[in-house]
Structure formats: C-alpha cells, structure tokens
Amino acid sequence: MRDRADRVLAELPGCVLAWSDEFDGPAGSPPSPAAWWPQTGGHGWGNRELQYYTEATENASLDGAGHLVITADRALPQDRARQDGCEYTSARLTSKDRMPVRYGVVQARMQIPEGQGLWPAFWMMGQDFDEVGWPRCGEIDVMENFGQDPRMVHGAAHGPGYTGRDFTASHRTLTSLARGFHVYSVVWEPGRIRWYLDDRHYATVTPADLGGQPWVFDHDFFLLVNLALLHVLPMAQLAASRAPAADAAMAVFGRSGKQIILVISLVTVVSTINACLLVSSRILFALSRDGLLPRWMASVNSGGTPAGALLVGALISIVLVLSGSFETLIAIASVLYVAVYMSGFVALLVLRIRQPELRRPFKMWGYPWTSWGVLLASAVFLIASVISDLKHSLFTLGLIAISYPVYFFAVKRRTSRPGALPDRTGV
Questions:
Q1: Of the candidates 232, 247, 272, which is a domain's last residue?
Q2: Same structural domain for residues 19 and 47?
Q3: What are phi and psi of 147, to 5 degrees?
Q4: 106, 188 contact by CB (below 8 A)
Q5: Is residue 183 domain-resident?
Q6: Are residues 23 and 72 in the same domain?
Q7: I need a labelling partner for 249 at 20 to 30 A (CA). Which of 9, 24, 151, 206 fits?
C-alpha cells in the first residue's frame, strides 16, 4: 500500500512530508489533542443526520495497532434526552485551529465501513469558516462513501454557487472498499485539485470548470474525519410498502412529509383515472361512430360527453379492479400509452410527408425535429418498458398484433353491409 501512496506523492516533485499522524498511542486512548479535537452535537448537521457526535472514547479511540477507530453505536435510551433525542452516537474529529493545511498532497489510509445509512468521510474546510461561513470558506471532500454502495468513492469541491453536486466526482471499483485499507488522496495546487484512489487518478477541478463561480481554495484549510448516519429504508421495506414514496418522505422529513406525498399522490391518481376514462371512452366512441360497436355508444349528452362510451369504460375498469387484475392493467396500460403516443407521432410525420399541401391548423415548434425527438424518446421508453417487464410487455404487444386483423375484419364486414357508413378521413 505504501508504494501506491508514494506514486501519488510523485505527482508533486519536491514534495516533502510536512506532518503525519500514525495513531500509535495505547489502545483505548483518544487521538492526540495537539492535532485533533472532537466536535459534539446532534442537530442534524445540515443533512438530517441521525447521530449525536460525542467526545467519548467509545466512539473514537486508538486500537493500539496504529489505527484510529471511529465507532457508530445505538444510543442508550437514558442518554437520548441530553443527546438531542438522537438514536445513535458517533464521532467527528477536526484539526481546526491546530493543524492548518494549504496545498500539497493530503491523504489518509483508511478502511471504510459497509452498511446502509453509513456515511464515512475524510474532508477539509476553510480555516475562515467562523468569519465567512459555508460555502464561502470552501470545502474539499477527499473521500466520501455511502455504505449501501461500498464500491463507490466520491470526491467533491464546494464553494459559492456550487454547493450541491455541481462538482462531485465518483469512481467505482471492482470490489468493496470495505474489504481492506485504501489510500484516499487529493493533490492540491494553486488553481488545480486532483483526486486519487490508491494510485488511480479519477477527477480534476480547476477554476475553468466552475462556470465563472469564485475559486475559494487558495488559503488555509483544516481536516475533518467523521462517520455520519443517514435515513435509509431497506429495499425489502419499500417493496412491502403500500406507499413507498410516502414512507421514504416520512423517514427523511417526518410525518408531515408523508402527508404531503400522500396528498400529491391522491391528486395524481385522480387525474390519471380521469385521463384513462376519457381515453377509453373516446376510443369506444370512435369505434361506435364507425360502426364497429353498437350505435348507442356514440350517443352524446347535452354537455358533449359520450355518456354511453364513458359508462362502458367505467364498468370495464371497475370489473378489472374487483377481479384483482388492476396491477396487470396498469402494466399493460403503460405500454399501450407509449405505443399509442408513438403511433400518433408516426401518423403525423407520415401525413405531412405524403400530403404536404394539407392545411396545418397548428404548427409544432421546431417541426420536424421536435416530432422526431419525441418519437425517438418514446421508442427508447418503450424498449425500456419491454426489458423491465417482459411478460406484460409481450402480452400487450401480442394484443396489438391481434387487434389489427380483428379491426380489418370488422371494417370489411361493415363496408360489406347495405347502408354502411363511408370511411372517414377526418377526425
């Protein structure tokens, strides 16, 4: 492992060791107070984190073998009242005001934990944090990992105007980073920062990458190392939930989050049901008008609604729901919706190509490129739907294939009857 670290050091010729901490004290002792001090608190730390950071050696201590061990543990019930009600304890160590850093190679040899909700990090913030605040002080994340994906390491630079994922780089490994020790490094120079995992360079940022936002990485920084805990719902729990989005929102935002998601979902469901009923009634109305279904389905009430077709569509939906096949219906409907949408754009393009002289009551912006773009996107979505749910997709495509000979048979039968309506070319 040492040779990998040396190869990173070689990226800065003339670089010499300025400081290191080998954590070589006795087992159970805290890290050197000359370089590190524990930050405490449990107010969420801006990320709705679950832990309370303590100064206890139960959460951060040396193991007697040259390692600093940070431990996250479930808080004792009797301690939660004085620990802001947090369910867990952990540690966050900082070198602020004790060990300033500016430029050079900053690296740590670490073995990260693995598990949903765990968020280990080794990072730096500007020494002027108390004066200018975050993000104006700047932040350089040497290593971040989210425990549910132990093969992925993240590096980031944050500053004014780029506080989110504007510049967050990631590198995926073939095996879990939690299986052993790895060296996480940044090579920090005036006007350039590079990220490394072991001796592999995976990201670079310069002022030119920030889109005109200020570069705030040319002053003293301090080090931080911590283990946070985040809200994560296991996939098994989400799969068993009747409202997974609502449960996820409740875990992150509390009960009010669940209520908001449920209200939005109900409004969306009502709108979707309304749209589905209108589509089915229009199709039944059109087929009835063309003589392929009973005439009474083409009747329209005084309000302009095809009442007969709407009633039949609603009754069919109710029967499908009561029969327990509503999930199958939704799966089929999603494929049909995209297929119908695609056929509409295909019809539009074919019509304009074959009969360009036809009057166009509405001209789509960017035609024909926008139509081709939507058609291509719909095709990609349809392919993805088929791949993700092959059973229902093939069943739906089979229904579409069968419907064509049935339709042509019905049309032929209609036109062969005395007094049959002529074909309509308009809509």
A1: 232
A2: yes
A3: -55, -25
A4: yes
A5: yes
A6: yes
A7: 151
Does 268 lie in the same domain as 150? Answer: no
Looking at the structure, tell me whether residues 159 and 28 fall in a common domain.
Answer: yes
* Through-space distance between the first and last CA atoms of the chain, rounded to whole angstroms: 73
* Pair 51, 147 in one domain: yes
**Residue 139 is a catalytic residue:** yes
Sequential pLDDT tens for the chain (427 residues): 445 556 676 676 777 888 999 999 999 999 999 999 999 999 889 888 999 999 999 999 999 999 999 999 999 888 888 898 898 999 999 999 998 999 999 999 999 998 888 999 999 999 999 999 999 999 999 999 988 789 999 999 999 999 876 788 899 998 999 999 999 999 999 999 999 999 899 999 999 999 899 999 999 999 999 999 987 655 555 555 555 666 666 655 555 665 676 677 666 666 666 665 566 777 788 878 877 788 888 888 887 788 888 888 788 777 766 765 555 666 777 777 777 777 777 887 788 788 877 776 666 677 778 878 888 888 887 788 777 777 777 877 787 788 778 777 777 766 665 554 444 433 3
Among 22, 144, 327, 357, the one annotated catalytic = 144
Q: pTM of whole model > 0.85?
A: no
Dihedral sign from CA coordinates of 118, 124, 126, 131: positive
| 144 is known as an active-site residue | yes
3-state secondary structure at position 402: helix
Q: What is the DSSP letter of 365?
A: T
Q: How many structural domains are present in the chain?
A: 3
Looking up residue 63, the CATH number of its domain turns out to be 2.60.120.200
Tell me which residue range forms the domain holding 85: 2-232
Exactly one of 55, 87, 139, 189 is catalytic; name it: 139
DSSP state of 184: E
Q: Are residues 168 and 202 in the same domain?
A: yes
Last residue of a domain, one of 232, 256, 278: 232
